[in-house]
Write a structure and sequence with these properties.
- The complex is a heterodimer of chains A (112) and B (113).
- By secondary structure, chain A is an all-beta fold.
- Chain A has no helices and eleven strands.
- In chain A, the strands form two sheets. In chain A, strands 2, 4, 5, 6, 9, 10 and 11 form a seven-stranded mixed β-sheet that branches.
- In chain A, strand 9 and strand 10 form a beta hairpin.
- Chain B is mainly beta and 113 residues long.
- Helix content of chain B is 0%, strand content 53%.
- In chain B, the strands form three sheets. In chain B, strands 2, 5, 6, 10, 11 and 12 form a six-stranded mixed β-sheet that branches. In chain B, strands 3-9-8-7 form a four-stranded antiparallel β-sheet, with no helix packed on it. In chain B, strands 1-4 form a two-stranded antiparallel sheet.
- In chain B, strand 8 and strand 9 form a beta hairpin.
- Classes of the chains: A mainly beta (112), B mainly beta (113).
- At the A-B interface, strand 4, strand 5, strand 9 and strand 10 of A face strand 6 of B.
Chain lengths: 112, 113
């Protein structure tokens, strides 16, 4: 039982490049979330998915897209990376009827 | 709307001293509150949570927190810290929409020998 896994762990992009961050959970959770963490800002919600086939915007969705591929996987895509998207990205999941979220180890992204 | 405010961005303490990390919240609905810990270069791990019932909540690693409705606070405490407690601590409140969490800005706890 790996919990929540994220790939890659580290990534460096040039401005304008695109990439997809992958997230998978093996806990049969319905809800999944993408956050970004910036120094002094805590974690801010980018997008979330209450169930397979549904996605909703969080606090800071601009510049990102998501796909809930199936119940296990929830990917985050940067179509045209900008230096302002340099951050640590965390994926989380939550089971039906549960109150807490479970977090992955994070992806550290640098955009130059 | 829900929000949390962590009152200290950094808290330095010596080993074996007590520590309190402060968190105030704002909410117009029922309150679910959480403390998460993030060790260097790792993800977030749940320390403890308050859902209802007893206002004193015990968590992992000897931490506890007290829910105070009149002061809208949920402060985290440990009577004697270890160097291994050095980490960033986040207070969070659960929103009314689909379980989303609203996080505070974090408190960096540094324990010195």
């Amino acid at each position: 039982n790996a919990g929540v896994t994220q790939t890659p762990k580290f990534q460096v992009l040039k401005t304008g490049q695109s990439m997809t961050l992958q997230c998978a959970q093996d806990m049969n959770h319905n809800s999944m979330y993408w956050y970004r963490q910036d120094p002094g800002m805590g974690l801010r919600l980018i997008y979330y998915s209450a169930s397979e086939g549904t996605t909703d915007k969080g606090e800071v969705p601009n510049g990102y897209n998501v796909s809930r591929l199936n119940k296990r996987e929830f990917s985050l895509r940067l179509e045209s990376a900008a230096p302002s998207q340099t951050s640590v990205y965390f994926c989380a999941s939550r089971g039906q009827g549960m109150t807490e979220q479970y977090f992955g180890p994070g992806t550290r992204l640098t955009v130059t | 709307a829900q929000s949390v405010t962590q009152l200290d961005s950094q808290v330095p303490v010596f080993e074996e001293a007590p520590v309190e990390l402060r968190c105030n919240y704002s909410s117009s609905v029922s309150v679910y509150l959480f403390w998460y810990v993030q060790y260097p270069n790792q993800g977030l791990q749940l320390l403890l949570k308050y859902l209802s019932g007893s206002t004193l909540v015990k968590g992992i690693n000897g931490f506890e927190a007290e829910f105070n409705k009149s002061q809208t606070s949920f402060h985290l405490r440990k009577p004697s810290v270890h160097i291994s407690d050095t980490a960033e601590y986040f207070c969070a409140i659960r929103g009314s929409t689909l379980g989303r969490l609203y996080f505070g800005r974090g408190t960096q706890l540094t324990v010195w020998p």
